[in-house]
Design brief:
Structural class: alpha/beta
Low-confidence stretches: 110-128
Distance between the termini: 32 Å
Number of domains: 2
CATH architecture of the largest domain: Alpha-Beta Barrel
Shape: globular
Strand content: 15-25%
Helix content: 40-55%
Strand order of the largest sheet: 4-14-13-12-11-10-6-5
Radius of gyration: 21 Å
Mean pLDDT: 91
Number of strands: 16
């Protein structure tokens, strides 16, 4: 998209006393109200749901993954079939990860097979031999988890694939270092990521599709000086938005500290650019991240939990989780959450029925719990937006953190509209 540097983000409201802001992303396939959660459509599908289901829950953007779509169906077929929006029948915006996380997780380990995209055999062993062969200045050579063939992904390759996908927001290729990386390696990796950023932006200036925005990615691990250097480099680049990636620490306290360092510096250097937090989306993380000034989040949590029979409920002591496969729910005639407006609870499906479906291995059970979980998260985000716009985010955040049901806290505070998906 040569020469297009138009602002894509409008800030409508801010919360006094924090960096929280409510705004609108203006993208090629429509607007996205922020702060927002972005469900994963990793391979062109939000698992167990149709695109219409996701849209009906109030979601305005999904995330596709460049790495998986690069391996299959590939750039040629993606272009031939008109891009990912047309391919998956999703009419709204798409953001695409660059593929860096998936590639480097193969080499560094410690990432679940589901995230890596590995397949397993009937006995549970890995059926893939995906692995990194070499990290070079040009890019990364790796072995495909699909067929074992050697493949290459560099900055230009990643951007070309994201152009074929036709995403509204493309992320630049970065090297993702794990928590155990030392200072020297993290610094060298960050510097290479910055050089890859320049190449991504140059490719996009020459060949990027009209209307596609580019986000650069802040790296630097858990080292304050490196995070500040990376934030400065990203702020000085021509990217239209900023993503925060890489290792954020070994626990939540350290993660929140690293995010807070970064958003504070972004507030100083690039206050009007949108900020995306990569791969983070637990309920407490969403609340804290919004107050730190994050605009959008993506995470596998609500859909992955749904596929394991775990529902989201307003219970901070249990990490907002309810395991419907436990025998205690075998005769429970109540819905997952009284007063919940999701299709599952509104439809009258009981905990006992969901327990039965999950224990029987029926796919309908996975779908119904996933619908509930995504609705729960959408309502949390609607509450947080209403809190910012109504000047009462602190009360809303405290209520949610204390176990108030999404929708109830914002409704109870005078002057705020009820939180609901899509509001």
């Amino acid at each position: 998209m040569p020469g297009d540097a138009r602002p894509i983000f409008e800030i409508r409201a801010r919360e006094a006393g924090s960096r929280a802001r409510a705004g609108t992303l203006h993208l090629a396939h429509g607007d996205v109200a922020t702060p927002a959660f972005v469900p994963l459509a990793t391979r062109g599908s939000v698992k167990t749901l149709e695109p219409g289901d996701v849209e009906a829950l109030g979601y305005e953007m999904v995330l596709g993954n460049t790495f998986h779509l690069f391996l299959s169906p590939g750039p040629e077929l993606m272009r031939e079939l008109g891009g990912l929006n047309r391919f998956m029948r999703w009419p709204r915006p798409i953001i695409t990860d660059s593929g860096g996380f998936q590639i480097f997780s193969m080499g560094h380990g410690g990432v679940a097979d589901e995230i890596k995209g590995r397949r397993t055999t009937a006995n549970g062993a890995s059926a893939s031999n995906g692995s990194i062969l070499a990290i070079e200045e040009a890019g990364v050579r790796f072995r495909s988890y699909i067929d074992g063939a050697e493949r290459f992904l560099g900055p230009e390759t990643s951007m070309e694939m994201q152009a074929a996908i036709g995403s509204d927001i493309a992320l630049v290729l970065d090297e993702c270092t794990p928590f155990h990386s030392g200072y020297d390696y993290t610094a060298r990796s960050m510097e290479r990521t910055h050089r890859w950023l320049d190449r991504c932006l140059e490719w996009h200036r020459q060949d990027g599709p009209a209307g596609q925005a580019v986000y650069a990615i802040v790296q630097g691990g858990t080292f304050h000086d490196l995070r500040m250097l990376s934030t400065g480099a990203i702020a000085a680049s021509g990217s239209q938005g900023v993503a925060i990636g890489g290792s954020l620490g070994q626990d939540k306290a350290q993660m929140y500290e690293v995010v807070d360092w970064t958003t504070a510096e972004l507030e100083r250097l690039a206050p009007r650019r949108p900020r995306h937090l990569l791969g983070i989306g637990e309920i407490d993380d969403l609340i804290t991240g919004v107050r730190s000034g994050i605009d959008t989040f993506d995470c596998a949590m609500p859909t992955r939990l749904g596929r394991h029979g775990v529902a989201l409920v307003p219970d901070p002591g249990a990490r907002w989780r309810l395991d419907l496969q436990k025998r205690r729910w075998r005769q429970a005639d109540e819905p997952i959450l009284d007063g919940c407006g999701c299709p599952t609870c509104r439809g009258g499906f009981s905990r006992a029925y969901l327990h039965y479906l999950l224990r029987a291995g029926e796919l309908t059970g996975l779908r119904l719990v996933t619908l509930h979980n995504l609705s729960f998260v959408a309502t949390v985000m609607a509450d947080l937006r209403a809190g910012i716009e109504g000047g009462q985010l602190a009360q809303v955040a405290d209520g949610l953190s204390s176990g108030a049901a999404p929708g109830a806290t914002a409704t109870a505070i005078s002057g705020l509209s009820p939180g609901a998906p899509g509001s």
